[in-house]
Write a structure and sequence with these properties.
Length: about 550
């Protein structure tokens, strides 16, 4: 029995030693550096004032961190670093109770107490800085619009001669992006993969890349992991060219859904409903499986929408061989790339009266100055269909005057608390509707949505959904609501994120979920082939039959 106990104890100690060794690894050390560097950037009063070249400070610290053999050595490196930054005075205003309502699902500074990596003295030092954090005009961040609150970056180096081959430079850009999301992305709590895990997985990838393309793909994967359809990735080193035809993801297939300009229909080999099966002799499903990890989106609807756009390599000038099916028959064509003017769409009509005295309004083209004329022309129709499968032009408040009989709240929001990075503040949403209580439109109101309904389009839908006798028809929207923040990381690399959080007045989330839909209508390949608008057809049927 005694021998068994000793063996059991030895096994436990061996496992504990192994676990500790694994946790105190290069990845975890570098991850702690990323966190402390970002924390000091946004919290330390002297750093937040811009008194240091903060990127250069990180580059100097990295070799020391890599050499640290245990937590005592690592903590000393951090303590010595912090001590060079100047004294942190006690902040009396930081401790005052606030009457504001906080949203804390994103807030997490628990890593400060990491006993595997940090000594108690270091943890206490970091906690002191948190309690006596910077207040005032920040050197690195500001609210883009004070009333809205989404952040914009400032005073970040451009790095026109950025050397991606330098390991420390690669880590610098990765750490910079990670911390912006950590502190200022309102939907961090919704990501499929925990943001801390993304950091740990990204560090070895940044460490081992062999080409500039691999480096950019690694950063792109970080963007993909915020699960935000606003999270586009743009590099100045890539010059995009796009084909003139539209592709859409339907039933796990990529289908030609039309051309951006009707005049091009006879000039190119594709027809509506053609199903792409191979590109340059590679099966399409292989291409989709390869590209999908690098496609951003909030949900499957928006990811697949974007995936369809990246099936053809958008930055290659050479022709592409495409195999496709038309009515079940195999076809082959060679497709070229064309100047951007070929992808500028024809201008559709703004509104019209369609069958059975039903009005139709294209929300993607009408301006605010058009609203009064449109509503006057359609006031006697039995229903108006508002097509929001596009990007509206800020007409929602003007339309609400005619559609909603009184002022009604249609959203609530959260914005970053710049005085306490990582925390968010609830803000009062806005109302829309008739200000004077005058008579409004009395017919049915139909809203058409799909995966192209994103951001301001979703916001517009939420507003118009407060009307009486309103029905929303279509399929899941993009799930990317809230003003966009552009993040210029330097080295010609930019990305974006949803900068504020948007919710229905009852707190129901729209990010990743999309807006509420009353009647779901999924597109079909047959509908595309026959040039039928199945969502519009369903809307007309609903108006006429009431179901």
């Amino acid at each position: 029995m005694h021998r068994f106990f000793l063996a059991f104890l030895f096994l436990c100690l061996a496992r504990q030693t192994s676990c500790s060794a694994q946790e105190f690894s290069q990845e975890t050390k570098l991850a702690s550096t990323a966190k402390i560097w970002g924390f000091l950037k946004y919290y330390h009063p002297q750093v937040a004032k811009g008194k240091f070249n903060w990127d250069e400070q990180l580059l100097k610290m990295l070799p020391k961190v890599i050499e640290a053999a245990n937590k005592e050595a690592l903590s000393k490196i951090y303590m010595d670093w912090i001590n060079t930054l100047g004294k942190v005075k006690e902040c009396t205003s930081c401790h005052k109770a606030s009457e504001e309502e906080f949203f804390d699902k994103n807030f997490d500074l628990s890593w400060i107490k990491d006993s595997i990596l940090f000594t108690t003295a270091l943890s206490n030092k970091l906690k002191f800085i948190e309690k006596n954090r910077f207040h005032g005009k920040h050197h690195y961040i500001e609210a883009k619009y004070e009333t809205v609150g989404n952040v914009t970056l400032k005073n970040e180096p451009e790095y026109p001669d950025f050397d991606w081959k330098d390991r420390s430079n690669r880590l610098l850009l990765g750490f910079k992006y990670w911390n912006v999301i950590e502190y200022f992305f309102p939907y961090k709590y919704q990501t499929d993969k925990p943001w801390n895990q993304v950091l740990l997985e990204t560090i070895p990838k940044l460490d081992s890349v062999k080409t500039e393309a691999e480096f950019q793909h690694t950063l792109l994967q970080m963007v993909v992991n915020i699960d935000d359809a606003h999270g586009a990735f743009v590099s100045s080193n890539v010059k995009y060219k796009w084909p003139p035809y539209k592709l859409r993801y339907i039933d796990e297939k990529i289908v030609v859904s039309g051309y951006y300009r009707n005049s091009l229909t006879q000039s190119y080999p594709f027809q509506r409903g053609d199903v792409i099966v191979a590109v340059n002799d590679r099966p399409l499903h292989d291409i989709m499986a390869e590209k999908k990890p690098f496609v951003w989106g909030s949900n499957e609807a928006s990811r697949n929408r974007n995936l369809a756009n990246f099936i053809m390599p958008p930055f290659e000038n050479k022709n592409v061989k495409v195999n496709f099916l038309r009515d079940g028959e195999k076809n082959e064509a060679v497709i070229g790339y064309y100047p951007s003017q070929n992808t500028k769409p024809d201008k559709p009509e703004k509104f019209r009266v369609i069958q059975d005295n039903i009005g139709y309004v294209n929300m993607g083209v009408i301006e605010r100055t058009d609203v009064s004329k449109i509503m006057d022309s359609l006031k006697n129709t039995k229903a108006i269909i508002f097509d929001i499968r596009n990007y509206p032009k800020g007409t929602l408040y003007n339309l609400a005057q005619y559609l909603i009989p009184e002022r009604r709240l249609f959203f609530k929001a959260i914005k970053p608390d710049l005085s306490y990075p990582g925390r968010f503040l609830w803000t009062n949403g806005r109302e829309c509707g008739n200000i004077k209580g005058e008579p409004t439109y009395t017919g049915k109101i139909i809203l058409l949505v799909n995966e192209y309904t994103q951001s301001h389009a979703e916001f517009t839908t939420m507003a118009l959904q407060t009307a009486d006798k309103v029905t929303t028809i279509g399929n899941q929207t993009a799930g990317a609501d809230g003003n966009v923040s552009e993040l210029d990381l330097g080295a010609g690399i930019k990305t974006y994120m949803s900068g504020i959080g948007i919710f229905y007045p009852d707190g129901l989330e729209t990010q990743r979920i999309g807006v509420k839909i009353d009647i779901e209508v999924l597109p079909s390949i047959d509908g595309i082939k026959d040039n039928r608008d199945e969502v519009l057809e369903r809307a007309i049927a609903f108006v006429n039959k009431g179901s």
